[in-house]
Amino acid sequence: MTDRVVSAPDVVTPARLGVVAKYRRAIMRSEALRGYNLLSPTLLFMILFLALPLGLLLVFSFWTQNYLDIDYSFTLANYTKFFDRPVFSYLLGKSILISGSVTIATVILAYPMAYYIAFRVHKHKLVWLILITVPFWTSYLLRVFAWKVILGYNGVINSGLMELGLISEPLEFILYNPFAVVITLAHAWAAFAILPIYVSLEKIDRSLLEAATDLGDTPIMRFFRITLPLSMPGVIAAAMLVFIPTVGDFVTPKMVGGTDGVMIGNVIQSMFGTSHNWPFGASLSIISMTAITIMIVVFLWINRIMRRRA
Amino acid sequence: MKRHVSHVTRDPLDMLLSDRMDRREFHKILGALGLGFAATTLGSSKAHAEEDANFFSWSGYELPEFHQGYIDKYGTGPKFSAFGGITEAMNKIRAGFKTDVAHPCAGEVTAWNAAGIIAPFDTSALKHWPDYFETLRTIDHTLSPSGENLFVPWDWGNSSILYRTDIVDLEGEEESWGILFDERYKGKLATYNSPQAGVQTCAQVLGYTNLDRLTDAQLAEVRKLLVKQRGLLRFYWDSQTEAGQAMVAGELVATYAWNDLYKTVSDEGLAVKFAVPKEGARNWVCGLVLTAPESRVASDERVYDFLDAMMSPEAGAYLIDAYSYGSSNSKAFDLVAPERVAEVGLSDPEAFLAKGLLKPIPAEFDQKYVELWEEVRLGM
Fold it and tell me: How big is chain B by its Cα radius of gyration, in Å?
């Protein structure tokens, strides 16, 4: 007791450090905590603007709309409604199919471009990469409108074909249908596919390609045995970057999809707008997200099996 | 020092570039910068307190001619936001969208009031109110239960079908809403994406007259016909411009339309007619509502100045001339050439209203109409 009283004024023990300093020391000692500390601005942002809204969406999906008011009692009614009415699964399936087609089209079109820049362009690569992003300097909506002009009744394609005398009446099937949605989306998301594929192609060790040639591979065999497998990470990243956001797109189908091009995003938009049924809109969003997650997991799983076999 | 300074340029940038600036000069400039900065932020925060009036309306009403009086007074126009449809607009305000004045139609006022998103006007503060047509000022379902005015009628006219007379063959029959359901024009029809208009015109085709309170059995029939119509449509439009462009391009032969589209399309040299359907056109009166205090942005003074500008005879005259809609201000008609007024055919609101306005749809029915329409439209 006396001892403590005497030593207190002149010895600065850890116990006498400020509370803040004490915490600081504790935090600095743990590597994990230091990591989180470093991440904290981003982490905080993600919690506030991603995790919280998602949580809110989940909570909303268990409530129900009662014309002007929300009924806050917990219920699975929205989910049973989804599975009771086949049309919602049909719309979700159609959206996944449209996005799947968009993804395949985008990746197939993007690959040669990325390949060209990675292997054939030796000077001014940056200029080429910037050129690819040029269409993205205009707004998304403007690009959709541009496609409306191209595919429209009196649009570029129809006028061109009529001018050439190949058709006498404008083709009506090229706008206002799912096909127009696929074309528009494939163009809109092209850059998101080109860049990751380019990066993975760029990283391929050129000596592997030489070795394959030395061992007698033809250019085509070399491509399928070396280049393509080694660029798969980029292809997968591209596919996911295109597939995930396009499933929920509602602007493009609204503008160029006509009556048949409707996607699940349009229904969700209606639920949060005209129909004013946020709880059902929330459950539709949750179901869509779950479906997309399952699709991605299956996709990655298949890819892993294929890799193991190879 | 003094002598030195007087010799050289006093332009700060020059001084900086030529290394002639001393510490005192530098601090002076910094001080001036700081003061200037503080002054601008002070100024802008003051400007922030005096927000412009916000107007939430259909696209097309942002034209400066409609708010010239406001622009003259404040130098800038009101802040404009557009909506595609009334139901969307109401839900947006209910979800917290801020605006001072919105632009629904007479039939929606009761529902908006029930939702608590609008407030009554002080009609004594409205400069042009006495010049308004009496019949329009007193539409009974635009008054609050205690008799206050919730609605300033502004524009009125008809909704009907605009069709190509060179293509649509009536076969001697009268014009009918049925044109929009005619299988002969599959893929060449369009209609307005509006639950109320869509459901009610379909009900008219089916011969129902209780348009504001369709029974569930009737709605089941309506659904069948609407599903059939969906297969015939090129698209549902949100903005009439879409329909106009497609019509001019030759892509459409008939569409749901308002009065003004006739002029737009016929000016392009197409043979079109604005039908007088045998089931009755949909006559409408739209107007301005004041949002509830929690949705308001601008001061009362600015809002009422904005309303005065909108309600002026000049704005009304422009509405008649440019859009072929009727104005609610009787004096507006004096400012338009008589032959133009005759062409518009809306100079007599008494006669127009005598034909009977569409009854407002009670909330519980409106909800059913909206649900039905959205389900059909989205193929649910």
Answer: 27
DSSP character for B143?
B
Specify whether A93 is located in the same domain as A189. yes
Distances (CA, A) of B45 to A272, B39, B267: 34, 10, 48
The CA–CA distances, whole Å, from B216 to B52, B208, B358, B364, B369 equal 46, 13, 20, 12, 10
Nearest to B203 by CA among B108, B318, B282: B282
B79: nearest Cα among B54, B99, B50, B48: B54
Neighbouring CB atoms inside 10 A of A300's CB total 12
Any idea which residue has 């106009």 for tokens? Answer: B244
| CB-defined contacts A:B, below 8 A | 65
Tell the residue number behind the tokens 């905590």, with chain if given: A33
| End-to-end Cα spacing for chain B | 84
Give the C-alpha separation, B289 to B245, whole Å. Answer: 31
Q: From the CB of residue B22, how many other CB atoms can be counted at a distance below 10 Å?
A: 12
Domain that holds residue A277: 85-309
pLDDT per residue as tens digits for the range B128-164? 999 998 888 888 888 988 889 999 999 998 899 999 9
How long, in residues, is chain B? Answer: 380
* Minimal C-alpha gap between B139 and chain A (Å): 25
| Same domain, yes or no: A47 and A89 | no
Any idea which residue has 């292809």 for tokens?
A: A235
Q: Are residues A97 and A218 in the same domain?
A: yes
pTM equals 0.77
Residue A186 to residues A239, A267, A269, B5, Cα–Cα distance (Å): 11, 22, 22, 66
Q: Tell me how many domains chain A contains.
A: 2
Percent of chain A with pLDDT over 70: 94
Chain B residues within 8 A of A153 when measuring between CB atoms = 246, 249-251
pLDDT of residue B8: 44
Q: For residue B71, which amino acid is it?
A: I
How is residue B299 annotated by DSSP?
-
Chain A residue with minimal CA distance to B187? A172
| pLDDT-based confidence at residue B47 (cuts at 50, 70, 90) | very low
Q: What structural domains does chain B harbor?
A: 1-28 (no CATH), 54-156+284-354 (3.40.190.10), 159-281+361-377 (3.40.190.10)
B380 touches chain A (CB under 8 A): yes
Q: Round the CA-based radius of gyration of chain A to a whole number and report it.
A: 28
SS3 A290: helix
By C-alpha distance, which of B156, B158, B162, B157 is closest to B261? B162
Nearest CA-CA distance, residue B203 and chain A, Å = 20
Distance, C-alpha B257 to centroid of its chain: 15
Please report which confidence band the pLDDT of residue B254 belongs to, taking 50, 70 and 90 as the band edges: very high
Rounded Cα–Cα distance for residues A211 and A225 (Å): 12
Over residues A171-209, the pLDDT tens digits come to: 888 888 899 999 999 999 998 999 999 999 999 999 999
Q: Are A258 and B235 in contact (CB under 8 A)?
A: yes
B87 CA: distance to closest CA in chain A (Å): 5
């409604």: which residue's tokens? A81
